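User: Can you help me understand a structure? I only have the sequence.
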Amino acid sequence: MQEPTPHSSRLAIAGGLAAVLLVGGGGFLIGRATAPEPAPLVAAALTPQGEAPPAPTAIAPPPTLERAGLLDLVADAIDAASASRPLPEAVQAAAGRRFDLMLPFGCEGPVEGERTAPFGWRYDEAKSTLRVWINPMRWERALWGITETGEGKAAFEGFWIARPWSTAPECPATPLSGAINTDPSGQAQGELAIARLIGDDAGKSARRLDIVKRMAPDDFDAVRGFALRITGRLQSAEAGGPVRCFQRAGLHERPQCMIIGDFAELRVENSKTGDLLGVWPVSETNQRE
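Assistant: Let's start by predicting it. Here is the structure, written out as tokens:
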């Protein structure tokens, strides 16, 4: 047997390697051709998160009606009454709104004699004592053209508003002069009043509100006087709206008007300093026998 030469051995080894590579490469190609294609990659859809609903917008309450705003309502009511028209919707819609009305008083100086004036004050220099009083008035509803209904008797209790053509919440800079209304009956004629409806105590007289304080004479100003501050809410009071206007002598005269409200509190303030002299929750202004 012939021994293989080194040359022939190398050829045999090279041929074997070539065969292995050929077989392996063919298998790889066949495998790639027959293998199933991989499933395509699908990006996960991002579901957007629902946005939080906007917070509800807080509805601010209507502003408190002060003297100027109340007089605007009265002007609209006077215009409607003078033309025999119904109370304007804007006036009726004011029912329930808060009000804060300043009534300056004492602008004419001190009141001597009996304390029958609706508003008044006097000062005792010997005792360094200030006395201030307020007499609420009473009006039967019939005086304002309102027919009584039912068995219960009701009335209005309140105050005439001095100088209703002025929106100023304080006394004029120039001292006032003239007669001071001292009519104790409460029926002295005025142009505009503010009042609340009272029921069971309508037949009783109103309680006078008194303040007595020790005070130096320079702690207040006789020209600037004092102020009654009335707070509460407007109401219709079964009177057709928060403002009631009535022409007693017919269409040829200027209407008299009344602002009708639920009083919360009465306060008397020193116009010079703004200090509080007295306060009465309406529950404490009970009527006397």
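Now, to help you interpret it: The longest helix spans residues 6-34. Residues 67-174+186-284 form one domain. Let me know which part you'd like to focus on.
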